[in-house]
């Protein structure tokens, strides 16, 4: 509560004056009163507006800020600079850094704090060694600069350059953590996710909506090495829904429409981004006993007997920032069925269950699933369609507020 109060003060002071009206505070008071929330829920018509105000603004991404041409050449795929050397050699895939050593130099005008945060992430999550070198060094290195736009070379090209450097620009608007880790990802060898050879199984390019001059940005690269890591709509390397759109319409649709909101995130590299980086640089070879990739989750788990499943903390309100998955696995020959006796989580915003949802994957672990929120599942009964009879539930609550009371479902094997 205390933290919420601090946030609220900051949020209000940052808002334009025209939004400083009492209706917003009324909603807030209602949220703060947990018992009132349980009784009344949020019914206000201005909820959508309220969330748009309080949600962090989406930072501009490279497709909105980057020039088409840099002094060094044309940008491919929006933010990949190809060197003359590369073109001469016909390089078609990102070259790795020798001996997992990534050298870099930060020029005075570049944003050191943002760059170091991005480097720290990849240092902490891979076996690549990052070493800052001086400008007089003869080591091949990335030169972090702040020129116009956010862009990088693909992989290590510096070792072929007479200057022994390759530029990586983080210009104005490019210092968000997701963007920095994205551009460093390119310089380590990452393509864009939707360039993968298997992308057509996961997304559809809406060619008619792509600006004519930018169609080459959506080409597939058949030589991408995916190292057994599945395609990831949530990759920090994935384009967003309307990149390079000529008319505002989507240029990329996810094959599973409920997952459209996943693409284009620039918060941080995903689990699979990290997994791919570790495979690219063969990090597992260095470990005599590889550490687990993640700690055991604090909620969710496998359900192999009939009973109930409920939101975390039930009957208390669920916590903010919860992310719980349940894998409901019946005995052979039977099907999992869930019947929701109570279902109340945050209502839709902009027509989607963007902030809080229960995702139900009736087709089992390989099914993208459907997302539900508000009271959409009250009294509903859902039965697995998977060959194994299993289903998966995933509950996510919003990081800042709780806006519903939660859910309870009975689990049966039929
Ligand atoms: Zn990129």
UniProtKB/TrEMBL annotation:
Ribonucleoprotein recorded as keyword: no
Keywords: Disulfide bond, EGF-like domain, Hydrolase, Metal-binding, Metalloprotease, Protease, Zinc
Xref: InterPro entries: Astacin-like_dom (IPR034035), CUB_dom (IPR000859), MetalloPept_cat_dom_sf (IPR024079), Peptidase_M12A (IPR001506), Peptidase_Metallo (IPR006026), Sperma_CUB_dom_sf (IPR035914)
Cofactors, names only: Zn(2+)
Record-listed Zn(2+) binding positions: 182, 186, 192
The organism's place on the tree of life at top rank: Eukaryota
Domain Peptidase M12A: 89-284
Cofactor note (record): Binds 1 zinc ion per subunit.
EC nos: 3.4.24.-
CDD domains to which the protein is assigned, alphabetical: CUB (cd00041), ZnMc_astacin_like (cd04280)
Residue positions of the active site: 183
Domain CUB residues, every copy: 299-414
GO MF annotation: an example: metalloendopeptidase activity
Keyword Metal-binding included in the entry's annotation: yes
GO biological process terms, semicolon-separated: proteolysis
Alphabetical list of PANTHER family matching this protein: DISCOIDIN, CUB, EGF, LAMININ , AND ZINC METALLOPROTEASE DOMAIN CONTAINING, METALLOENDOPEPTIDASE
Name of the molecule in the record: Metalloendopeptidase
Higher taxonomy: Eukaryota, Metazoa, Ecdysozoa, Arthropoda, Crustacea
């Amino acid at each position: 509560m205390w933290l919420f109060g601090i946030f609220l003060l900051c949020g209000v002071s940052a808002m334009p004056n025209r939004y400083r009206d009492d209706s917003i505070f009324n909603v807030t008071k209602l949220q703060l009163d947990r018992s009132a929330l349980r009784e009344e829920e949020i019914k206000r018509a201005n909820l959508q507006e309220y969330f748009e105000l309080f949600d962090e603004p989406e930072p501009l991404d490279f497709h909105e800020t980057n020039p088409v041409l840099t002094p060094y050449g044309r940008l491919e795929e929006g933010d990949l600079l190809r060197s003359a050397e590369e073109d001469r050699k016909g390089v078609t895939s990102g070259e790795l850094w020798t001996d997992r050593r990534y050298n870099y130099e930060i020029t005075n005008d570049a944003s050191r704090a943002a760059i170091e945060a991005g480097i720290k992430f990849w240092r902490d999550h891979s076996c690549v060694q990052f070493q800052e070198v001086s400008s007089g060094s003869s080591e091949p290195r990335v030169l972090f600069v702040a020129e116009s736009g956010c862009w990088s070379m693909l992989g290590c090209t510096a070792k072929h350059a007479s200057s022994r450097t390759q530029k990586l620009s983080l210009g104005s608007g490019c210092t968000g953590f997701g963007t920095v880790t994205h551009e460093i990802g390119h310089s380590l060898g990452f393509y864009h996710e939707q360039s993968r050879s298997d992308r057509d199984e996961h997304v559809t390019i809406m060619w008619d909506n792509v600006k004519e001059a930018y169609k080459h940005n959506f080409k597939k690269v058949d030589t991408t090495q995916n190292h057994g890591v599945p395609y990831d709509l949530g990759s920090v390397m994935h384009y967003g829904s309307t990149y390079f759109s000529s008319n505002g319409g989507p240029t990329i649709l996810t094959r599973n429409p409920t997952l459209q909101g996943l693409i284009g995130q620039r918060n941080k590299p995903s689990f699979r981004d990290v997994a791919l980086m570790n495979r690219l640089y063969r990090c597992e070879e260095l470990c005599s006993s590889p550490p687990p990739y993640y700690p055991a989750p604090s909620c969710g788990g496998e359900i192999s007997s009939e009973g109930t499943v409920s939101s975390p903390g039930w009957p208390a309100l669920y916590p903010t920032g919860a992310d719980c998955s349940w894998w409901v696995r019946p005995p052979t020959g039977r099907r999992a069925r869930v019947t929701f006796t109570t279902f109340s989580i945050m209502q839709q915003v902009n027509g989607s269950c963007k902030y809080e949802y229960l995702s139900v994957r009736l087709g089992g672990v390989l099914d993208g699933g459907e997302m539900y929120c508000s009271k959409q599942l009250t009294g509903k009964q859902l039965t697995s369609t998977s060959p194994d009879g299993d289903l998966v539930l995933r509950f996510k609550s919003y990081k800042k507020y709780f806006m519903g009371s939660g859910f309870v479902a009975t689990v049966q094997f039929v």
